[in-house]
Design a protein that fits this description.
This protein is mainly alpha-helical and 255 residues long. The chain contains 12 helices and no strands. 77% of the residues lie in helices and 0% in strands. The longest helix is centred in the C-terminal third of the chain and has 29 residues.
């Protein structure tokens, strides 16, 4: 289990604890159960930075720092998937050609536009979030984004005959226990630290993440015949954006 967690940590972030020459597809697949936990840890680091800099950085600078930190922590892994997915899915080509475009290392105009809009909207949402919601929103977006990826991995076929993402699709098994435990633990901590209202907002965000991942997976599968490693990254990034939007919209409601 330790190796599986370290594998998930080193795959989803830039953190490198050690090199294991015995990595294989089975180990990668079994590490899926720890994806939400890795997200929780990454989100906690971002929340710590947000709290630490809240008293002396302006909202604009702090939001820029947080967006930059999110890209740095993940090594832009999911951003790359979003760009490739946008280039392929919006190309208007055949299924086979879309998959070829997504595999191309070059970035097209749709990919550039997609990543620009994603980072712009993340920055805007973080900049407008009330201080009381910022930390729980950061942790929730990173955790729920990776939970959405698990849903995409388990519930939809893999579109390619090979690829790194196929290892997750074939060997993930049934990771729901650890994944759900991570989400429930996060909700419990939010309930304890931030109160029942913020916990309710987090629950709504979690449900929205599940529904979005389900609908996005169906849409992508209809176009490509299944998911790919790139679309796993895309669903993660878009779910993060959705979670931030839920937290911000909740601040406009008169409770």
């Amino acid at each position: 289990m330790k190796r599986e967690f370290v594998t998930a940590l080193q795959f989803l972030t830039r953190i490198r604890l050690f090199h294991d020459p015995d990595y294989d597809d089975g180990l990668f697949g079994r590490s899926v159960k720890f994806f939400p936990l890795v997200g929780l840890l990454a989100g906690s680091l971002m929340a710590f930075v947000a709290v630490l800099t809240g008293g002396w950085l302006s909202g604009t600078v702090r939001s820029t720092l947080l967006v930059t930190l999110s890209v740095f922590i993940t090594g832009a892994l999911h951003c790359d998937g979003l760009m490739d997915s946008a280039d392929g899915l919006f190309s208007g080509r055949s299924r086979e050609r879309m998959l070829e475009i997504m595999k191309d290392s070059r970035v097209g105009s749709f990919g550039v536009i997609a990543i620009f809009l994603l980072l712009l909207w993340k920055w805007a949402l973080l900049n407008d979030l009330p201080e009381s919601l910022l930390a729980p929103a950061l942790i929730s977006m990173m955790t729920f984004g990776r939970f959405a990826m698990i849903l995409a991995i388990l519930r939809f076929p893999y579109a390619r005959p090979e690829g790194m993402g196929k290892a997750f699709a074939l060997h993930a098994g049934t990771p729901w226990g650890p994944a759900l435990a991570t989400v429930l633990a996060l909700l419990a901590v939010i309930r304890l630290v931030n109160g029942p209202l913020v916990c309710a907002i987090a629950i709504v965000a979690a449900l929205a993440a599940v529904v979005f991942a389900w609908r996005f997976g169906h849409w992508v599968t209809g176009k490509l015949g299944g998911m790919t490693g790139d679309t796993y990254g895309a669903v993660t990034e878009l779910t993060e954006l959705l979670v931030l939007a839920v937290f911000l919209l909740s601040s406009y409601v008169k409770w």
